Amino acid sequence: MTSQSASIYVPHWLDDKRVYSCGCGSCGEKIPKFNPATGELLSLISAGCSNEVLKAISLAEASLSNWSGRSLDYRAEMLKKTLVAMESNRKVIAKILSSESGRSDKMVNAEIDAAISYGEFFVGESRRFYGTTMASKELGRFAYFIRQPVGICLLITPFNGPLVSMAKKVFPALLCGNTIVLKSHELTPMTGILLAQCLQEAGLPSGVFSVVQGIGSKIGPQLVGDPRVAMISFTGSSQTGRIIKSQSHTFRMCFEMGGKNAFVVCDDADLDRAVEYATLSAFANAGQMCASASRIIVFDSIYDEFRDKLIQRAKSLGVGTSHDDFVPPIITEDNLHRILEAFDGAISRGGVILTGGQRVNLAGYFLEPTVFENVSPDDPFAQEELFGPATCLFRADNLDEAIAITNNSKFGLTAAIHTDNLHRAEVFKLRCETGVVRINGHTYGSEPQDIPFGGRKLSGNGWREPGTDALDVYTEKKFVSFDHDQTRV
After folding, report:
1. Which long-range contacts (CB under 8 A, 24 or more apart) does 337-345 make?
2. Which one is catalytic: 290, 368, 373, 385?
3. pLDDT digit string (tens) for 255-267?
4. N or C: which end of the chain has fewer CB within 10 A?
5. Which residue among the candidates 100, 111, 125, 256 is catalytic per the annotation?
6. Which CATH superfamily is domain 261-439 in?
7. Which CATH class is domain 9-257+460-476?
């Protein structure tokens, strides 16, 4: 496996090989990709056209019966070999992940570990590919359901944690016997190609897995609108999710979208622990996570003490790409400018920056960890997803007020509460309008074996991918009943 340089275009992956252009003469556009840590041109992406989209879906259609007809053990063994290929190519994968995202070697290796862990989990699920048997009121009837592949799956992945996001989607989809068209995010385009090469090394049949590059607004309508696509899995913004829903021919869609997640600190919390978890939740990956804690709600009696501790902790965070740095760059300069404009807007409406708020004097797109206060819970800054290293502090008199502020959002992805009172924790758990609630922890993160991760309201549509529920996403359940006549024995 070889790495990518700016002198070579980032290709599509079609029919088990790199494809840079279909040769039609009209798809010569190249999308520049810059390294967020340096601002330098990293690569040029093949923008793609309708021919590449049609080719990818046609390949998935042609290879479906072959792949879905293989045994479950065969498919699981192929995934196991893929994990071996990922490990053996770790250095190349880490280099590309680091250059595309601007994160340190430590951070990208943690992502590779997580992606492999998800793969291991779904390989193990091949031994527990469960159906269900059901009792019937009719004598002589045996009833049960079986799982069958959905068909062609369109997987649309985000730029933040691209490899682990792919692992959550690709491994269960392939295990269940589906074929895949992957739309790589244009800000992390090479990651999908590297995964394709690992699948090829493992011996995956040609056409089962394809990657198309390009801007979503240009090639997306054709991808999601093709009637041969049986299922769409999308991780990204709620705005894009709405567009996909309106353009799709399938009702089978698994969406994991944005969040404006609340982190509640009660007056009986372990304050130092709460500060540490709030810091992790707000500033990990420069706040570029759907589960980041962008609203921190603190009981009034401990507000000042918590605020002072959080400010000091935020100031201590290293910004950069070294092993000890915690805050990587913003993915693009445009995103950085958008965040700074949001800061200015919040300040113009009375918001106060307690720490941070400035671009860091480094070559790339770095931003100081930023803490606001005096922002209204109804302010756009407190309501819209920012995707940057910034959070707002809010005061609450009691648990009822904290819950009201938590639920005052169009999003409903995650929330956390820090308390030593189990009664408070139970009430918060039940009344919090989110898909994930964490008690005395951070707002982000999931493990392969976890209860599946996802949200409510504009954060999701009810489906869940991680964990065993991914089998429900990527298989059709077929009810079967068999009647036998006991007199004919």
Report:
1. 339/367, 339/386, 339/387, 339/388, 339/390, 340/367, 342/380, 342/381, 342/384, 342/386, 342/388, 343/370, 343/390, 345/380, 345/381
2. 290
3. 999 999 999 999 9
4. C
5. 256
6. Aldehyde Dehydrogenase; Chain A, domain 2 (3.40.309.10)
7. alpha beta
